[in-house]
Amino acid sequence: MTDMEKRTRTDRYEKRRKNTKSISILLGVGIVLLISLISIWLFGGGDNEAVDDSSKEQPETSEVMEEDEDAQEAYVQNDESEAGQTNTTEESELENEHDENNQSIVTEEVEPSDDNVIRAYTADWEPVGTEQEEPHIVSFDKESQDWLEMKEAILLATGLNENDYHAWWIGNGGDQKAIATVSDKEETEVYRVYLSWVTNEGWQPTKVELLKENDWEKYRN
């Protein structure tokens, strides 16, 4: 074989080897690209699905939160309603108790005893009760139990307040009876009060007269 023939065969072999190598490289690159595309498609699609899933789940979470808020609001409203009902019931009970303890006494106009009387009236007052035993002996001493119980009867009949009360005179009005001249501290209202002793029950107001002027000295003399 001549040198020329050997060179020609060698060149052909080298050329084929290079072609084979190039094809191998191209195939390798193609396979890598194909794998990359497949990976991107698989993992990229999974992420999109995850995002889509999260976007789908978000309204459900919001709905749950809204339901919780609605439940809490309903609970608060229920508590407020129950508290309001309780307060209304308590106020009603207090009002009823107040009405029972402060029932207005119906009065009846009667003839005045003299010209100094603006108006005279009587009512169905009850005896105020007593701590004294029978037989009862009237005492007009300011430190006596009689004096304290007569004061209670006077306040009942006149409606005066103990803190705005002044007794000008309390004296004998007959057998087991008393007459008192009293007023508020400013003397804007002056009363003459008639009391009678009820056995075992205490002093009972029998008549009240609203006076034009304070005339307690008249009865003291």
Q: What's the oligomerization state?
A: single chain
Helix and strand sequence: HEEHEEEEH
Rg over CA atoms, rounded to whole Å, is 56 Å
Helix proportion range = 40-55%
Main sheet: strands, sense, barrel:
6 strands, antiparallel
- Structurally, how many domains make up the residues? 2
**Mean pLDDT, rounded to whole units?**
77
Overall shape: rod-shaped
Task: Give the N-to-C terminal Cα separation.
Answer: 180 Å
* SS elements, strand count: 6
Structural class: alpha+beta
| Cross-sheet strand order for the largest sheet | 1-2-6-5-4-3
Strand content: 15-25%
Poorly predicted tracts of residues: 46-56, 94-102
Number of distinct helices: 3
